[in-house]
């Protein structure tokens, strides 16, 4: 029985894909003087920022993170958009008595900024950010932490995200997993990680939760 839904934030609940991509491009150009293909950037979605930067310049990863964050904070609100069906789905899920949470690799201040920008923080019982765990996506600890705080078992939860790192986080924790097809990550790439469900619109999560509850309760 599904008792809680855990959501990734960027690219899942709010459309910050353009802001993220532009911030990566700016950072790589400014610090390394190189251009990175968008497909290479999108495959990092869901990972902690420091881990990504460390792969490109281990000694100066912190500097790259700072460059990224400074630029991203400037353009975030201008580039951010809503996804159709998200707030309606959250409202329905909440009315059905499900617990809701965010599990994101975005640091807390920016995660809360994004949630507040679209007035959806009111639906969330918890927000798990990198500050809350030692291990991060794609490890299962963030989802496990969310389940612990919500007082549910992992198998009673559904992890919804737009990247392989979200799917792996949910699977590694023992949660059901769900991929949004409006992901900026190449769909065939994420499908290799075999999410339990794939949806076109967030409203489909309502049906998944109700049907799963009927099936296994």
TrEMBL record:
The keyword Hydrolase applies. Pfam families: HAD_2 (PF13419). Its EC number is 3.6.1.1. The keyword Protein transport does not apply. SUPFAM superfamilies: HAD-like. GO terms for biological process: DNA repair. Signal peptide: none annotated. One of its GO terms (cellular component) is cytosol. GO terms for molecular function: inorganic diphosphate phosphatase activity; phosphoglycolate phosphatase activity. Gene3D superfamilies: HAD superfamily/HAD-like (3.40.50.1000), Putative phosphatase, domain 2 (1.10.150.240). Keywords: Hydrolase. This is Pyrophosphatase PpaX. It comes from Clostridium acetireducens DSM 10703. The gene is ppaX.
């Amino acid at each position: 029985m599904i008792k809680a839904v855990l959501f990734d934030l960027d690219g899942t609940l709010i459309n910050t894909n353009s802001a993220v991509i532009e911030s990566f491009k700016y950072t790589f150009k400014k610090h390394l003087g190189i251009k990175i293909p968008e497909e290479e950037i999108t495959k990092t979605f869901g990972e902690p920022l420091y881990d990504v930067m460390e792969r490109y310049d281990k000694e100066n990863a912190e500097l790259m993170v700072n460059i990224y964050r400074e630029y991203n904070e400037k353009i975030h609100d201008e580039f951010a958009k809503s996804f159709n069906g998200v707030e309606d789905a959250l409202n329905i899920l909440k009315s059905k008595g499900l617990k809701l949470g965010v599990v994101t690799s975005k640091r807390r201040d920016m995660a809360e900024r994004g949630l507040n920008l679209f007035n959806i923080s009111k639906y969330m019982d918890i927000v798990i950010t990198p500050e809350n765990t030692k291990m991060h996506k794609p490890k299962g600890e963030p989802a496990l932490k969310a389940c612990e705080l919500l007082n549910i078992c992992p198998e009673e939860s559904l992890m919804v995200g737009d990247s392989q790192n979200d799917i792996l986080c949910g699977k590694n924790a023992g949660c059901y997993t769900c991929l949004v097809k409006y992901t900026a990550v190449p769909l065939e790439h994420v499908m290799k990680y075999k999410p339990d469900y794939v949806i076109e619109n967030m409203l489909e999560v309502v049906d998944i939760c109700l049907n799963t509850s009927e099936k296994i309760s």
